[in-house]
């Protein structure tokens, strides 16, 4: 099957916040537009009060950057914008500049399917200020949503304990784009298939589905409906049994299952979409087993999420497959990841990088300055800690201390020589040219699975997970503290004067 790349074939450069364009114009007016800068995209808290997050959306970012250009229709629209006095908002010379703008940034990013943690960058963008600024909104839009959904899917799959999870969320998703992105991200997070046929075509995700209550209701009897469906699809019969009376529906499914068997076919199973799922699944299992259908699957749906699935598991519900829709594709209990995009360094006239820090009364909102990367340390294939470090800083293999960026009293000493290490930010673009070999969606999904396997089970608890160690290398911690203190000192002097 040919899998579509470049989902959007034309530029989406105007998919941005208005202030990104006004800042770009002001950078151009002030002569700073081509000044080199570094921005980092990161999030501050795990979603769903969890202990891990799954990165997703990089493939969309690659498509966006490859098609980054201002087309004639974009420029015509911008030329029509007026300032308060009725004059054109943007000078013709600026629009001419935009017409010649070619994407030339370096982008380093965490690969999709990687387990990631707060404050560590998911994407680092280095290049001219104007380009870096114009990338902020679309990158956040793409990564915030897909990372959120991939994480939700991973949590649901953990709750299912190895049972297949089917994503059924298209009809409840936030629009067409939201539905496609959610199906893709849910597959990365571990879902076995999607009901979204367009996502199947575009991304190569397996598609699955049964039939609706309307199919049953269109016939005079439930049994007649089951028989007609079996004639149409004798090799993939999963009967929805709760249109009228669930247990009577199971009896009708068994009758049609026997009819199929007499023709050399086998009923795959039944689906229950309402009522007491623990009770009805157990009763259905007993009925199916006694009738000689021990291999028939029981599929459950009906507003499921990881908490409900966990509860049903503790009740010994006889459910083999889980259909999850609304609460997965909408990230029902947390509608946004909250990732941010912050300037961390600019290049001065001497060609040196100057680290930049945003000061806040909330330590959570103080960004990490400089040109930095992330190393993950492994012991016997288990992830033990992530270190955020300055790329030009030499790391002593005999010992390093990492310091929590929010609570500096939380520290961990590592001896890098005794661990395997992985640098998490990988080159994606160099001076605007793609240098990254894009993996298939299946490979991304496999990476997510392996990354979760490398994470200790205490970090994967759905409730009150253990905190995974992520810290700043000591030199980066001191740089950050000095910049904050200097900024506060300057602030105080300014107030006194």
Automatic annotation (TrEMBL):
Pfam families: NAPRTase, NAPRTase_C, NAPRTase_N. It comes from the Bacteria. Residues 14-144 form the Nicotinate phosphoribosyltransferase N-terminal domain. Its EC number is 6.3.4.21. CDD domains: NAPRTase_A (cd01570). The keyword Transmembrane does not apply. InterPro entries: Aldolase_TIM, N/Namide_PRibTrfase, NAPRTase_C, NAPRTase_N, Nic_PRibTrfase-Fam, Nic_PRibTrfase_pncB, Nicotinate_pribotase-like_C. GO terms for biological process: NAD+ biosynthetic process via the salvage pathway. Belongs to the NAPRTase family. Catalyzes the first step in the biosynthesis of NAD from nicotinic acid, the ATP-dependent synthesis of beta-nicotinate D-ribonucleotide from nicotinate and 5-phospho-D-ribose 1-phosphate. This is Nicotinate phosphoribosyltransferase.
